[in-house]
Amino acid sequence: MARILTGIQATGTPHLGNLLGAIRPAIEQANDPANESFLFIADMHSLTQIKDAEALRKNTYAVAAAWLAFGLDTERSVFYRQSDVPEAAELAWYLNCFFPVSRLALAHSFKDKTANLKEGASSVNTGLFTYPMLMSADILLYDAEFVPVGKDQMQHLEFTRDVAKRLHSTMGQEVFVLPEAVTQESVMLVPGLDGEKMSKSRNNTLNIFEDPSVLKKRINKEIETDATGLEDPKDPNANPIHQLYRLIAGDAAAEQMADQLRAGGYGWGHAKKALLEAVVDGFADERAVFHQWMANPQALDEELGRGAARAETVAREVLNRVRGTLGYGQR
Ligand code: TRP
Description:
The chain has helices at residues 16-31, 43-46, 53-69, 87-96, 101-104, 108-116, 126-140, 154-171, 212-222, 241-249, 251-263, 268-282, 284-294, 297-326; strands at residues 2-8, 35-41, 78-81, 146-149, 180-183. The protein is mainly alpha-helical. The chain binds tryptophan.
């Protein structure tokens, strides 16, 4: 069995792009009996940017509820909240002591994040700087073999292997499994309501868990269509409606819509209505399950708590290995 581990950023309720592009494929992989997955919500990393207890808690719940609504099997996978297994913070400290500042200073993500901060140098906290060491700890703490990540995280994976090797050579003992990055290539490209890539920062997202009335407003207002008359033939790719419809309703239904648009007598209003119905009906079950979880945060805490207990069993063992190597007592 391959041990796969991924940290999930908690930046709010996942939108259609997150769900189809990342979450659904990750769940398929996690539910595959050939794999043993550790999936966690990286809420300690969130603290580098979010200093609002209520927002932090809510984001975590929304992300957890979305993964559960999309069918993550939590018997098979270990699903937990990073902050529920604080052993990662302990390991991060040890790793800090083996990694050169000069190398950490080369992190692209740190440079990007600090370049964009409006508040000035005082908001560049040390957590942002050592972020890659906490991420390395997340991975090494569980003897993870494979880490599926986006391109932007490749350098962090290099740091992870690097710091593990540095500790090995300094201490003269192998304690860690060296993880391999797995880049997700065939990620589905989901267009946003403006036709550009769907992303929260562009404010062009479709939040499928939203109420149908809100979804309707969003689709009608935010997708711009040209003024082609009802009877005129239309280019199905003149706006993202048809493309979004394909991703949700499937190829056969989408071909039918494309034919109708090309033929004329079928308006953008009809297409929008079809898209809305596809979103509302196509994700009806997921929406219901999502809201059940959100209405019961205690149940979410219990679910994540069970995951944390399983994670902690592994974490303790690995950490004791490290503690022994460094000259500390066993816990
Ligand atoms: N830094 C990752 C991201 O921004 C999230 C993350 C935290 C992570 N810890 C991890 C990913 C460990 C993989 C493994 O997406």
